Amino acid sequence: MKFEGHRVERTRRCLENPEHRFRTYEEAQPLKMEAIAVRQSGSNKLAGAFEFPRLVRDIEDAVLQMGGPESALIADRVAHQTVYWLERKLDRLMKGLSLGERRDFPLLAGWIYDHHISDQVEIELGRTKLPLARVLYALSIRGRDDREGRHGWRTAKDVLNWLYDHHPRLKKSFPLEVAVPEDAWYPTSEAPLPKYVIKKGQRIVVPAESKAGSTSSKLRSARSKASGDHPESAGNPGHALPHALEWTNDSRLLRRFDLDQFVGSIRKAMMGRANSDDLSKLVAQRVLHDLGGQPIVLTSQLAAGVLDCLRRTDDIAYLRWVSIAKSFDNVPVFEEEARALVSSPSRRLVFRRPQTAPAQ
């Protein structure tokens, strides 16, 4: 056997016939992340093999809309850079599997902690031209507190402490905390649902009688179109617009209100927060109750309602929601919004079932 750098030359001999010999040239291959398991930092449980698509999805969910149509490209590029650098650190980061873990994962070489991956993602996002993307990713990962042993960010002060560590130029002293009044609320009945939702500025809905003036050609939309071309009514007469309304050519994106979609959008903001599924439904009910049964609502009404409710309910979920709703594009603006949660907090909203009087 002869060594040449990382290359090994071996002479092999047949046990049955020593005259039969051959040479092999072997070279150690660097470890790949696909051969590494990920261990949860909080619970210390082995979560299974590293999955590149999952990493891309986590990054894309966090930086969604930061890069506009290029969000997916940004997530993919950052994920590849993260893997590139992690593979060069595996000799220092990787730990060995236990005997039981080797039986469960015979093809894996070892494990690393999940925070090693998220820390590297933050570094790579910091190298992009979208500095707020790093903040939003940290908010997405460090703001999770729904798992055993995971103590994520609880309040805006936790966010600001991290922010000031990474952006010291923004650092300010914290204002004195004040007592915040608390309101208790719980739905006593299902909220009435809107029938339609409209995005203001992109959809124009007008009374059918309004056909006067220079815009009459735009306002006249044949009712036959309601059962044919309109996506909400095609093949489904029951979904046509009320006959008192018509839409212009610019209003084809008018949609029927979808409760599951509305709750799902709130759930994204509450991702990783304790009891996120139940709280998302309660926030939706609170917003819809406040709308008072309006049959047609604007998306801006829904967004503002969620904004107000989350600010009173959960700092982390609020900051996620407001970053998209207000189209934040820089870190100082985000810092001001987070700081306002500390300096000017809203009345807290607690979802508490009313106590029933004991039976006599």
In short:
With 360 residues, the protein is α/β, with parallel strands linked by helices.
Descriptive overview:
The protein has 14 helices and 13 strands. The protein starts with a strand and ends in a 9-residue tail after the last strand. Helix content is 41%, strand content 14%. It has 360 residues and is an alpha/beta fold. It is elongated and about 95 Å long. α11 (276-291) packs across α12 (299-313). It has helices spanning 52-63, 71-87, 90-93, 99-104, 114-126, 131-142, 156-166, 216-219, 223-226, 259-269, 276-291, 299-313, 315-325, 331-343; strands spanning 2-4, 7-13, 21-27, 36-39, 46-49, 110-113, 182-185, 196-198, 205-207, 245-247, 255-256, 296-298, 348-351. It has a 3-stranded antiparallel beta sheet, with no helix packed on it. β2 (7-13) and β3 (21-27) form a beta hairpin.
